[in-house]
Amino acid sequence: MKAPRVLPTSRPPAVATPPPLAWWGLTLSTALIAAFAALPTVNQAPPAPTSLDQALQQSFTVKYQMALALASQPAPAQPTTPYTVKLGDTLQSIAADYGVSPVAIVQATPGPVDFLQPGQTLSIPHRSTFVWPLTGPTLPVPLPRTSLDLVASLGTKVVAAQAGTVITAGRKYNGYGNMVEILHDKGMVTRYAHGAQVLVQAGTQVAQGQPILKVGCSGRCSRAHVRFEVRVKGQLIDPLSVLP
Fold first, then answer.
1. d(Cα 234, Cα 188) in Å, to the nearest integer?
2. Which of 207, 203, 224, 206 is nearest to 215 (CA)?
3. Cα-based distances in Å from 57 to 66, 148, 177, 203, 218
4. Integer Cα distance of 219 and 180 in angstroms
5. Model confidence over 50-59: pLDDT tens digits?
C-alpha cells in the first residue's frame, strides 16, 4: 500500500515592516516646512517710507503708521523762560502776562506747582505756534483732558491749528463722523471731528488758519461742535498744552 502523499506546505506571506517612528517624524517635519514656505508672508512690518506721498498711497492703518514714522525723530526740548514768583502772583495771572495757558506752565515746570510760593521759579514756555481751530465755548470733558469739544453753530468754518499735511479727510473711525487729521512737525497730529463737510483732501498741504472743515454733528454727537485732539507720536496730550 502506497504511503500518503505529503503536500508541501505554503510559505506564509511576508509582512511589511512599518518604517521606524523617526522616519515618520522626519517626513512630517519636511512636509510642514514645505507647506509653510509656500504660504504668503503675513504681518510683515510696512516698508520704511521714502516720502509722505508714498505713505498716503497705502491703506489707512499703514498710512497712519508710516506718516508718523516719517516724523519719529526726537522732538527738541521746548524753550522756556525762568520766572520768579512774586507775592500776589497766581498761575492764571502769570499765564495771562506771558500769553500762554496755565497748563503749559505746569507742564514746562519741573516739580509740583500746586501752591505758588514767593521766590519759587517757574518755567514759562515760549508762546505757542498754534492757533485755536474755532472760537467758542467748550463742553466739559473728563480729566485728564485729552480733547476739546468746541461749540459753534452749524456750518461754522474750522481752521488748521498749524500748517501741515492732511493725512485723513472723511469718515475713518466709528463715532468721529467727518474728520480731518493733519500731520505737523516732529510727529504731532491734530484731529478735527464731527464735521458737517470736509473742505480739504488727503495729501494736500494746508496753511495755519486755513478752513478745513465745517462744524456739524456727524458720528456720535448730541449737538453741533468740533472735537479737537492732539497726538504726539501717537499719544494723546492735553490740547491746552499747545494752544495759546
1. 8
2. 224
3. 10, 30, 22, 9, 26
4. 13
5. 555 555 555 5
Report the C-alpha gap between 168 and 202 in whole angstroms.
5
What lies within 8 Å, CB to CB, of 231 at 6+ separation is 188, 189, 190, 191, 237
Residue 31: all three cell numbers together: 512636509
Give residue 15's pLDDT.
53
Residue 43 pLDDT level (bands cut at 50, 70, 90):
very low
Label residues 163-201 b or e (16+ Cβ within 10 Å = b): ebbbbbbeebeeebbbbbbbbbeebbbbbbbbbbebbbe
Give 80's pLDDT tier (boundaries 50, 70, 90): confident
Domains of the chain from N-terminus onward: 80-125 (3.10.350.10), 148-241 (2.70.70.10)
pLDDT one-digit tens code per residue, 94-118: 888 877 778 888 888 888 877 888 9
Q: Is 118 helix (H, G, I), strand (E, B) or coil?
A: coil
Name, in order, each residue with C-beta under 8 angstroms of 111's C-beta and a sequence gap of 6 or more.
none
The Cα–Cα gap between 175 and 153 comes to: 20
Cell numbers representing residue 56 in the block: 498716503
